[in-house]
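Sat 14:20. Reprocessing the chain from the morning session after the first attempt stalled halfway. Input below, unchanged.
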Amino acid sequence: MKKAFLFALVLTLTSSLIINIAKAKLVACVGDSITYGSGISDRQNDSYPAQLSRMLQKFDNQWQAQNYGVSGATLLRNGDKPYIQQSAYNEALAAEPDAVIIMLGTNDSKSWNWVYKDQYVSDYIFLIDTFAELPSKPGIWLCKPVPAFNDNFGITNAVIKDEIIPMIDEIAQLRDVEVIDLYTPMLGTSSMFPDGIHPNADGARLMAGAIFPLSTPDLNEDGIVDAADMCIIVDHWGENYPFCDVGPAPFGDDIIDVWDLVVLSEYLFTYPGSVAYWKLDETEGDIAHDSVADCNGTLISGPL
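Finished this time. C-alpha cells:
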C-alpha cells in the first residue's frame, strides 16, 4: 500500500519543483590544465566546470561549480608545479565548498615527476584530508584522469593507465571516498582532444556529463529508470542509505525521502548516462565495436 501511494505521489511531482536551500552550494573543481580548460577558446563558458555548473543548475539554481584548475599542476608535492603551492588551492579551501571533485595525475606522469611516485598515495591523502577537515565537511570525489591520446608535453598514457589509476582506486579505499572514472568513458574520443591531452568544448561537455550523475537514479543498473528503481527507494524510506540517496540533486541529503523520488521522476522512463559508444569505423566484418563497455552492435546489409 505504501509503495502504491508513493508511486502515485511521484507522478504528481514535476521538474519545476524548487528545493529551497539556505545558501548557495559550491562544487570545487580541483585539477590541472584539463580542468582549467586550456585550449578551449571560451573556457569561461566551455571548460568542464562551467558546463557542469549549468547541468547542476538545471536541477537547483543554488548549486554552482567553480573552476580551481591550474595548468601544469601536479598532485605530487615534489613535482615541478605542486597544486598545493598554487593560489587556487588556497582559494578552494577558503571557499569552504560543499563538494570537491579532484582530478590530478596527468602531469605527474611526466618522467621527471614520476620519479617521486612512491609519494603519490601519501600526497593525495594529504590533499583529501585538507578538504575533509574544512568546517563545510564537503563530499569528495576523485577522478581517474582522461586518456592521453598522444604522449605529449612529457605526459605518458601508460603511466596514467597502468600506475596512477590503480593508485587512485587504492586511495579511494583508504579514505572511503568515491571515484569517478573519466578514463574509460573518454576512450575513442581522440578527435575531441586536438593535441592528444586537452579536450575541446565537446570533450569537456562529455567529461561534465560523466561527472554529473554522481548518484545515478538507475538504482538497479538495468539501463532504464522505472518503477523498479522507485521501489528500491521506497524499501529504504527514512534510512540513511547512500546507494539510493539521489536527492536533493546532485549530492543527496543523507536520508531517503520525497526528494529522492523527485530526482528520480526527472529521469523516469529514460536511459541516463552513456550506454555505448560506436565509432562505426570498421572497414570489414559485421560488428560495430563498442569503445565504452561490451555493447557491440551488428551491422546489417553491408553498410559502408
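Residues 10-22 have pLDDT under 50 and may be disordered.
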